[in-house]
Design a protein that fits this description.
The protein is α/β, with parallel strands linked by helices. It has 10 helices and 18 strands. A 7-stranded mixed sheet has the order 6-5-4-3-2-1-18. The protein binds zinc ion (2 copies). Zinc phosphodiesterase, which displays some tRNA 3'-processing endonuclease activity. Probably involved in tRNA maturation, by removing a 3'-trailer from precursor tRNA. Pfam families: Anti-Pycsar_Apyc1.
Length: 303
């Protein structure tokens, strides 16, 4: 099953040096989930060959402009391009009012429905579940209410050992039960144990998205063991005072967090516009956590 994330925007605050404000596209089993929608997200989708019409779920972390200023434009384009299927939007409660006001004054009546889910930023909760993935909020520590998102793949059914099943002539109609860990009694009197004919499926993978936040151990338990942890790293550690003041994280701190929570891989992003190049940020993070990569725009990472 495909489980990967493509970076559409990696800048904080303002678009600079060919970097766009934050947005990511998660592909889980060929369904697209948009995480944040900074200005320019539509253009980035086009640039990297994605169809906005395929997105059915959008998650917005908080109401700073660099995380949602691209949203109304995207919603409007979907309408103009004839969308009729509903769109599921998970976001801070006030975003509903912002969207409605914009469309009210432009006399826009969307052809499709927005199924709006207001996020409670005071406690973590499961906000979405389907056959592929579960999405849970992560309570971050930012200047305004802000949540990260934890995407956990759904555990797949057990895998059949076809060779053995055929060798012992187990009828095909019993395969689905064995996959669901059920032992079966055949009409010929044989008892078939699922453990003898199936193997366990892969351990579900976890992707954690943490932007924006300052270092705060309260959310560490939630992101423990993530296969891929995206963590903001707005500044170099020499700017720690500024990071604390603005409720952001330094590259060194992001690495420390990845180490503490035993993440397998760290992606850093949300880079300040003060950095023209990103090597120093990468170096600083790699110093503390070697398996770090820059969340560079257009790059796709397998979770
Ligand atoms: Zn931001
Ligand atoms: Zn912010």
């Amino acid at each position: 099953m495909k489980f990967e994330v493509t970076i559409l925007g990696s800048a904080s605050a303002t678009p600079v040096y060919n970097r766009n404000p934050t947005a990511q596209l998660l592909n889980c089993n060929e369904r697209q989930y948009l995480i944040d929608c900074g200005e320019g997200t539509q253009q980035q989708l086009i640039k990297f060959g994605f169809k906005a019409s395929k997105i059915d779920y959008i998650f917005i972390s908080h109401l700073h402009g660099d995380h949602f200023f691209g949203l109304v434009g995207l919603l409007s384009s979907l309408h103009l391009n004839g969308r009729t299927k509903p769109l599921h939007l998970f976001a801070p409660p006030a975003l509903k009012e912002i969207i409605e006001l914009q469309f009210l004054h432009s006399d826009t009546r969307l052809r499709y429905e927005i199924d709006f889910y207001p996020i409670d930023a005071t406690k973590p909760e499961v906000i979405f579940k389907n056959n592929d993935v579960t999405v849970e909020t992560i309570i971050l520590n930012h200047r305004i209410p802000c949540t990260g998102f934890k995407f956990t793949e759904k555990k797949r059914l057990r895998k059949l050992v076809i060779e053995k099943l055929e060798e012992d002539a187990v009828p095909v109609e019993y395969y689905p039960m064995l996959k669901r860990s059920v032992d079966v009694d055949l009409p010929d009197g044989r008892s078939i144990k699922y453990l003898d004919y199936t193997t366990d499926s892969a351990t579900p993978k976890v992707y954690c998205y943490c932007s924006d936040t300052m270092y705060d151990e309260r959310y560490f338990s939630q992101i423990g063991g993530a296969d891929t942890l995206y963590h903001e790293a707005t500044f170099l550690h020499e700017m720690l005072d500024r990071a604390n003041e603005t409720h952001h994280t330094t590259a060194k701190q992001a690495a420390e967090i990845a180490t503490k929570v035993k993440a397998k891989k760290l992606l850093i992003g949300h880079f300040s516009s003060r950095y023209k190049t990103l090597e120093a940020l990468l170096e600083e993070a790699k110093d503390g956590f070697d398996a770090t990569e820059l969340a560079t725009e257009g790059k796709t990472f397998e979770i």
